[in-house]
Amino acid sequence: MNILTFEDHQAPAEGEAGVLVLDNTVDPRSVSLAGVRRIDLNFPKFTDGRAYSQAYLLRRRLGFAGEIRATGDVLIDQLVQMARSGFTTAVLRQGLKADAAQRQFDRFKGFYQGDAAHPAPHFADADAAVA
């Protein structure tokens, strides 16, 4: 996952081609993804998880292969779940340092269940490696 500090992130210009900013109330299935290379999903508060569902829908059900960027109240302890939900980039909340983010990923080396990034469960990957 690509981690950006608040200062490093540039919000897209109004109507910027190829970039779509989705509000939390928008169903991703209701918008056209033609020509879209980046989708910004917002976390207005760290307790608002609707963007996780939007990212998962975009990745797994709609097959969106471009960048999905988390913006807003993004905390370091959310990054692993964001990556598992389909986000490729996260913009940390103002005041947080990007170098601390890698420690969060180092704590969790793998998962048994599949996710948006790796749909096959751990046991299926292990069975394929043996075969």
UniProtKB/TrEMBL annotation:
InterPro entries reported in the protein's UniProt record: UCP030820
Protein name: DUF934 domain-containing protein
Pfam families found in the cross-reference section: DUF934
Lineage: Bacteria, Pseudomonadati, Pseudomonadota, Betaproteobacteria, Burkholderiales
